[in-house]
Description:
The protein has helices spanning 3-10, 12-26, 31-41, 53-88, 95-172, 178-192, 201-220, and strands at 237-241, 283-286, 290-308, 324-330, 347-353, 361-365, 375-382, 391-394, 396-402. By secondary structure, it is α+β, with helices and mostly antiparallel strands. The strands form 2 sheets. Strands 1, 3, 4, 5, 6, 7 and 9 form a 7-stranded antiparallel sheet that branches. A two-stranded antiparallel sheet has the order 2-8. Helix 4 packs antiparallel against helix 5 (95-172). The protein is rod-shaped and about 160 Å long.
Amino acid sequence: MSASTMSITANPASVAYRRRAAIEKKQPPTALDLAAANAAAAVTPPSTGYDGLAAGGADIKELNLLLILVGLVEMVRRLVIDSRTRSSEGLAVMPGDFEGKLAEMEAFVKEITTMMQVQVDVIDKKLENKIRTVKGEFSEKLEGKETELESKLKELDGRTGNLETLMSKTEATNWLSKEEFDKFLEEFKERKGSEVSNVNLDEVRVYAREIVEREIEKHAADGLGMVDYALASAGAMIVKHSEPYNIGKGGSSSWFPLTKQNTVHMDAQKILTPSFGEPGQCFPLRGSRGFFQVRLRRAIIPEAVTLEHVSKSVAYDRSSAPKKCRVSGWLQGQDTTDVTANSENMFLLTEFTYDLEKSNAQTYNVLEYAATSVVDTIRFDFASNHGNTLHTCIYRLRVHGREPNSVSMLA
């Protein structure tokens, strides 16, 4: 046996140590080594936005724990490989060497754990600081937006108030009613002779201009455009009336002096005269009930009557306007000496309620059966007014109709 052979046999532990060292030198870097290097290099987390900060920290923690586990598995695997290598060569594992590896592994794990804890604390502090900063910026922006929103809401409240005021004014304005619009539409259809769908804007403008011109002519023609057969300047007259309003002796004032019974006051003709909308130009009758009789300028077939009061835009008080009204008529004939003659032939022409919310001049058609009779005298009775207990003011009464075509109708 040679000297080299004797040396190996005499010191088998030395031979096993040299073989293990040669094997370890040939092995590449293990996962344990990579875990240590990655743990030492993981100083800062990746830069993310506010929404990804927490998720980024959690991912780093999970990755480092995974690397630690892989490192531990690798160490166990190496121990197992070393143990198998020694067993295959017939060499006993030295107790001191195994304990040294365990101590080395424990020290490494403690080091890695300490490094990971330090990195986790650093990451938590950075995340906390970043979140605090983002929250502060977000709060500042939110406060600025809140102030801007309050300003916008105040502006919107102001516009809403203006809109409500405008709507109130619009509701108070006397716009075209549905009935008036339907009438306008029917007249326009008849004038054009075709469907409304074929109408253009220019045609509507022309027709509207014609309507305005007709209304102007109507206003110039006593406001209604209908003949008034109860006009004093045309020959009509008041022949009888109830007691006029006056205070009498001891009063502070009186509109009219006391007159003899059954006589006509000289100012009663105001009922048959245009007042031109001037307040006070009326004939007052005592109380809330009364009447007056009118002899028309000539006999007519009655069609309508118009009662006029002062407009609410210029009136001081409209409570003296008549309310519940009744108009009757008969043919008096040529006998003008007795105003009550032939009154037994009196018949009802129309009944109505004067509405203060409508136009100051309101026209009422006579009843259908009365539209074929001939009258030359009418009686106007009012059973109430709009609240004045002292007197009722009559500004103007008009009677409209047409003249008979033949003398036989007058007989």
